[in-house]
BTB domain-containing protein
Amino acid sequence: MPYKRDDTYYFEDGSCVLRVGDTLFNVHRSILSKDTSTFGTMFSLPQGNKECEGTTDENAVVLSGDTAQEFRHFLWALYGLPPELAVLSSLKTDLTIIIDIARIANKYSFKTLEAWALDTIHECITRHTFTMHVVKSANNTFTPQPVATPTTPLSDLPPEQITQIIHLAQLCNHERLLNTLINILIQLMRNSVKYAHLAMSVADELDLRSLRGLAYLEILQKSSVGKSFITETQLFEGSEQDSPHPDSDKTTANMVIPITPTQQLRLFTGYYRLTRAWERLRTNPPSFDHAMTCGATWHQHGCTQSWLEFWKEKTRSDSVLNLGLSDVLGKLRQVQREYERWGSATYMHHECRLLAKKSIVETIRKIEDDLPDFFDSSINYEP
């Protein structure tokens, strides 16, 4: 198989020939040895009587797992001058380029370059400045330049690129970038079941607990998959039909998405546990310890009875019943809003009212924290 020399990064005075795919690069060992990289370690190993790898085209160091274009992006960053690198960090650019730089820098342990690339990706994402164009110079070599195109909306970022960056952030243990991408996905999936499916798949693959529960809940409430097996479950149980999420439109609700048998089992498990959790909450309101002054200056039984009557009435209100059976968080938040509007005409002690309010907040927080466990069919979770 004939190999071709790269037009840009095959230097005549280079000291190490690398082969990536069918392309040869001749670069400088001093550059490759920067930043305590893997190459520096490789060059320090004794070669014995054998010809040193990388000295000729025929005996090039073979790098597998990368494409020539990806490695070219990496070398551009390695050889780039500060004003050239500033193009990627201060102007609109193709995120693919920076992703390639970060991934290969991680692969060969260029820690400083890796950190810079990941921080640049994070900066671009938080500024919503994306463009999908690569600018090339007249001789067809890669040259990053400002691109006069409008800022791309965050929702237009290709799903596969979101997945790629999340994988990269976890691989490189860049917590700030990972958390930012998770928050972006949470925002996007509330408006599109496509992103909810993406979030569910990524969360399963990378074991992202903070994303898994919310993604499965969105699929359960908005997708045709969720509706189909919910209907089957209700026919079996003889219960009323779970109503659609108020924010979902007809197109979203009817969207067909691929679900694996494992994911379907988790959705069944989540639906069953969430509906059970609501039945328990509906009949047993959150408890709280009465204030000390309640027993001394107030009729504590009347205080308790007032709280129970409020809970019984509001959990049966139309605003709560109109929500899906599995929408425990939605129901609790609706009850919370009703409690805020309850006013002062009540037999509850003032301090007990505050404690009751706190108990609703804590119940919501606990369900949010435990949401991944609701959908985990591998554990014996009792809501």
Summary: Residues 129-153, 232-253 have pLDDT under 50 and may be disordered. Residues 350-374 form the longest helix (25 residues). The CA atoms of residues 37 and 109 lie 5 Å apart.
